[in-house]
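note to self: dont lose this again. the chain is below, predicted strucutre after it. 446 aa total, dont forget to put it in the shared folder this time
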Amino acid sequence: MYYITPAAMLTSMLIMTLGFYLYELVLIQRRTSCKQKWLLLVAIIISYLLYFLADFFRAPCSPETSMNIIAMLVVYWIMRSKVTSKEERSRIKVRVLLGFALWRTMILLGILVQFEVFKDTSEVKGIPFVLTVHLIEMLFVSFITALYFKFKISNKLDLINQKWLIRILMVYDCTFILVITLLSNVNPDTLSVTKRLNQNFLLLIILEMAIAIGVYFISRKVQKQKYEKALMKQELTNLKRYTDNLEKEQRQLRKFKHDYQNLILSLEEIVREEHSTKLPQYIEAFKNYVDQNFNESKIFLLNDFDNIKNPYLKSVVINQVFQSRERGIDVHFECHKIVPAEIGIESFDIVRLMGILLDNAREAALETEAKKINLMLYYHENHLEIQIENTTNKENMSQIEREGYTTKKNHMGFGLVNVKDIQRKYDNLLISYAMNDGWFVVKIYV
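---
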């Protein structure tokens, strides 16, 4: 076994520190400002100083591990500074993690070559030896980097789901430490070194897993907050539309009350005139006026919405009803009994469910001549029943229920397959489909 002098070790750490930072910058492919360059220079110096401190105070983890951990975090923090785009931040995060994984792999390859070439020597090695070893490592770095750019891995990374990439990196880490363990058993001469590598990389793996889990839960929380915010915004928009419609109907009622009194007075005057030929005509005109101002299709919007106490369900129903009516669909809505706020499934899922089904109903109804939708909500003995009916052209039920099929042309939405995904989450959620004399009927039981 050979030994490396302190001066050679310090030179090695300096080369590794500079190399790691430069390699990350190459992979990230983002121009750095003057301030960021200075920050990177300061980070390199601090990383190098931390190596001394970790070595001097005999830190639980090796100096190399400390340097690598800090370097990875510092590069990510500096490169994402002044980046407002979430997509760009996500891009930087993926490249930093990938660069970190590739860098460790190439360093390991260099170490393995080093073991194989110098395994029979027992001399004390100096700076020339260190430079030779790092030259070998840089050859691996150059080769992998050339492949990275040749096959345009950078563009392909943008298409990979972050969650899956983190899983891949975690599997890679576990494989990495397994390989090191197997090598230590195969070659007893490298046992002490591979044990040290095991300790270092195990700590890194634990850190990466902790970061990955933290990122997953934070991302999930942020997405949920964004979804809640979007729902609240939509709810406020729908509520404003609802209240505006109420005010409009109230004004129309006040106007009708005034006109109604004048109409009654005129009608009484005509009745006093015996054998008046104007009476039937006037009565017919009066009926038409009443129909125009109190048509069921107008005033139904004021009824039954208030019985829905779940604000998210109420919001999506109002929104879907208004959208359908604005597109010329005759919508009949009923909810004669109180529907409580708690309905047995999460609000987000009921919003998605109703949104998908009512979107499908609207698009299918628009393709028919009748253009009708019936929506009914009925709550009884802690059970909610929702029935959605829409006129439809003749369809094959096996086609409708087949995964991925939708009645929409050039459909870009979720489709019935997503309804099935939601249904699988709940044992208390039943959904049935049926065709009935030109109507497509969906029944939801909760």
